[in-house]
Design brief:
It is a single chain. The protein is of the alpha+beta class. The chain contains 4 helices and 7 strands; from the N terminus they run αβαββαββαββ. It has a 7-stranded antiparallel sheet with strand order 1-2-3-7-6-5-4, sandwiched between helices. Mean pLDDT is about 80; it is low at about 15-25.
């Protein structure tokens, strides 16, 4: 399998896992500065942001859902590229990108927990952008204790 096909499969599997984790989460509807809320929640869940100053302010209506394992946003009335610009500025990394040329049905970016401290998938939805974030600790194997001999 080529790397493009593997990346596409990886993004689909990650999206399925994230959807399952957020089934029991209650959502809140808000209108306001999405950028500030996004940065706040990323930091609260252990993300390593490279920049929090001078990020583009995105004012829009959004739904928010959070539990101990992460969070989900659905932001409406914004273009994917506008939000993508803010996120890549904050994270300092491009993540894996799929622009529908590899058979994906939507534009998306996948940021690995090993790179930013949390797993983050952002993808285009009708009328906006969705984010699914899984807390980095879910990706870390438990520490083993050394046994003295």
């Amino acid at each position: 399998m080529n790397s493009t096909k593997i990346a596409s499969i990886s993004i689909k599997v990650t999206a399925l896992i994230m959807m399952i984790l957020f089934v029991g989460c209650s959502s809140n509807y808000r209108i306001g500065n999405f950028t500030a809320s996004f940065v706040d929640r990323m930091l609260a869940h252990g993300a390593r942001l490279s920049n929090t100053n001078g990020l583009p302010r995105i004012v829009a209506p959004w739904f928010f859902c959070e539990d101990a394992n992460g969070f989900q946003y659905k932001v409406y009335g914004v273009e994917f590229t506008e939000v993508e610009h803010m996120v890549t500025n904050a994270l300092g990394t491009a993540g894996q990108y799929d622009d529908k040329t590899t058979g994906a049905t939507t534009r998306c970016r996948l940021f690995k927990a090993s790179e930013i401290g949390v797993g983050l998938l952002m993808f285009e939805i009708k009328g906006g952008v969705e984010f699914d974030c899984i807390t980095g600790g879910l990706f870390t194997p438990p520490k083993t204790r050394k046994v003295r001999s």
